[in-house]
């Protein structure tokens, strides 16, 4: 999955229609160049690719002073956006950029759905952590690797454990009613213009 793809679809969806510079400016304002390694070239590449795949529709907006290509999300693009967003929130892997993109756009979904997706993520993390701890606790004879490699497994354990703790906290925040989600208000962040 691609964080850039999810973010580009999300920005176009938020605005209803947007030209490439607006998409890029929005992502830069969100700090996506830092947490998702989004660059201007990758934004324009994603816009072209998504248009070629029928996820975005290209057009020249009326009333523009200069002719520039604008984009709007198609039904196929909406389906892809929702699939990517759900995958980003339930994914228990180490793709930090994808998780950040998912959290940024999570208000696009109903609260209960986001909580369930995060619980899926938590289950994956807890299973992974159990396996890592088993490896760390192995005897020297069972280990079968150079002794210093155990430190990599400890790092993995602490990273996964921190991710699981954070996920639990986010679930608790959502269950407590924090944040405006798609089913709370038609003005929730990330929803298309009404």
UniProtKB/TrEMBL annotation:
* Superkingdom as given in the UniProt entry: Bacteria
Q: Which InterPro entries match?
A: Metal_resp_DNA-bind_regulator, Tscrpt_reg_PadR_N, WH-like_DNA-bd_sf, WH_DNA-bd_sf
Recorded GO MF terms: DNA binding
Cite the entry's keywords alphabetically.
DNA-binding
Q: Domain Transcription regulator PadR N-terminal spans what residues?
A: 8-80
> Pfam families of this UniProt entry?
PadR (PF03551)
Keyword DNA-binding assigned to the entry: answer is: yes
Name of the protein in its database record: DNA-binding PadR family transcriptional regulator
